[in-house]
Write a structure and sequence with these properties.
The protein has 5 helices and 6 strands; from the N terminus they run ααββαββββαα. The protein has a 6-stranded mixed sheet. The chain is an alpha+beta fold. The two termini are about 25 Å apart. The radius of gyration is 16 Å and the shape is globular.
Length: about 170
């Protein structure tokens, strides 16, 4: 008898997507395509991807274009730690699904000040080849005091907290 592992749900994929943005001092180069190869619909001709944390507020029309924005920023990052504080909430119908969650992050650039953020992220997923992939993304971010981000993460470094959250989600 053969067994197959069920494919991840939209809820699981959205959670995993958040932690794809994690960075730790000493990590190699951040490559959006390598990190998120299985999350975005790279063949989509109708993708719309936006994050107001991009200083230029660009709207990307493909994952490739979106990745070019974030490769630059995340390669200037010493560390990035995230924790989910709300959600995800998912609506699914047929081959489309929408999900929303809120995360808090502590971002430490190679040069400059540490920043705390709270981001509400809304994603639209399309099931292609049996897998849920992102075709729409809208992220709204507010800067919060660093100590608030650190409290949400469980301490100044935060990394231990995100690992703990991942382990807690498995059980």
């Amino acid at each position: 008898m053969s067994t197959t592992t069920p494919l991840p749900t939209v809820t699981e994929r959205h959670r995993n997507w958040v932690f794809g943005w994690e960075r730790e001092h000493g990590d190699g180069r951040f490559e959006f395509r390598d990190t998120f190869r299985d999350f975005y619909d790279w063949e989509s001709e109708d993708a719309i991807l936006y994050d107001d944390f991009d200083p230029e507020h660009r709207v990307a029309r493909s994952p490739r274009e979106y990745g070019a924005i974030w490769d630059v920023h995340f390669n200037r990052m010493r560390s990035a730690a995230h924790v989910i504080v709300d959600g995800p909430a998912v609506i699914e119908q047929g081959d489309l699904a929408a999900s929303r969650l809120v995360f808090v992050a502590r971002l430490e650039p190679l040069l400059g000040e540490v920043t705390g953020i709270r981001t509400t992220t809304s994603l639209v997923w399309r099931r292609t080849e049996g897998r849920w992939r992102i075709v729409r993304e809208h992220n709204s971010t507010v800067v919060i005091p660093v100590h608030e981000a650190e409290e949400a993460l469980g301490g100044p470094r935060g990394r231990e907290s995100t690992v703990h959250v991942r382990e807690r989600e498995k059980s």
